[in-house]
Design goal:
Layout (H helix, E strand, L loop, with lengths): L1 H25 L16 H8 L1 H33 L4 H16 L2 H18 L8 H26 L4 H7 L4 H30 L2 H6 L7 H9 L6 H35 L1
Helix pairs in contact: 1-11, 2-11, 3-6, 3-8, 3-10, 4-6, 6-8, 7-8, 8-11
């Protein structure tokens, strides 16, 4: 049985990572072929730097991901604290159910509903071309919030509830007690929520497709527009760079969680 389970696990990993391995391999191809390796070359990485439209789309994506992830982390952390301190179990359960809806809702439904909302708001305010960076930012913050809350909330439940009381006994105000006592103890989860929000914003296509305007294009939308013609190998190079950046972020998350767990064990001992 162990041999069968190991074979099955290896097969799953092959299906998961074989396409990425092929992508990385052919990003170093000297030619345009995706079937014949014509020699090792960094040509397509150089082409990425020369493509101004792609670089602009990448810049837009990074700015959007950074701003939306920071905003979602701040709002989501505050929301998690509020939910954790709710005394009514019915209200807490109802709030958590509402929080989970955006994650369970299909992206296309979320995208269309947000587009209709923004267009309706634009007509009420008599604003033409309402769709753009602002609507994208609001949409990305909205769908990132549940993931931040679900990252932070379990850590809050594990935190000693008397921690803030002890800080207040030592002279802290309730607000400063939170920042000096509670926040450092949940910082690992807050950071995990931030990274998850960043990666989700970086990757999003469906919702962005419906809520963006003609003057603002993200990288996923740029790649989608290219698929209507031909995707050049420089996209393989750019995708490879993004893959390793995300991999580095995941490593940082794991290291952060490992350090927080060590600190907890040290405090308990």
């Amino acid at each position: 049985m162990k041999a069968v389970s190991r074979f099955y696990l290896a097969l799953v990993y092959v299906f998961l990572y074989a396409p990425i391995a092929v992508l990385i391999f052919f990003s170093f191809n000297a030619g345009r072929s995706t079937a014949v390796f014509e020699g090792f070359s960094l040509k397509w990485y150089g082409e990425v730097v020369k493509d101004s439209a792609t670089l602009t789309a990448l810049q837009n994506t990074l700015v959007l991901a950074v701003l939306s992830s920071i905003a979602a982390t701040v709002i989501g952390t505050a929301a998690a604290v509020g939910i954790d301190r709710m005394r009514s179990k019915v209200l807490k359960s109802a709030t958590m159910s509402i929080t989970n809806v955006p994650m369970m809702n299909p992206d296309i439904v979320t995208g269309i509903s947000m587009m209709l909302l923004f267009v309706f708001a634009g007509r009420l305010l008599h604003v033409n071309n309402v769709l753009g960076f602002g609507t994208l930012l609001i949409a990305h913050i909205t769908f990132n919030l549940p993931y931040v809350i679900l990252n932070v909330l379990p850590k809050l439940r594990q935190t000693d509830p008397h921690l803030e009381e002890a800080a207040q006994d030592l002279g802290c105000t309730p607000l400063s007690a939170f920042f000096k006592a509670t926040l450092p103890s949940i910082m690992g989860s807050v950071f995990s929520g931030l990274i998850m929000a960043f990666t989700l914003s970086l990757d999003d296509f469906v919702i962005s497709y419906f809520v963006t305007g003609p003057n603002f294009q993200t990288l996923p939308l740029r790649i989608y527009a290219m698929t209507k013609k031909t995707v050049k190998p420089d996209m393989y190079a750019l995708s490879t760079i993004i893959f390793f950046v995300i991999l580095l972020l995941l490593v940082l998350i794991n290291l952060s969680q490992a350090r927080s767990e060590k600190k907890e064990k040290a405090l308990r001992q």
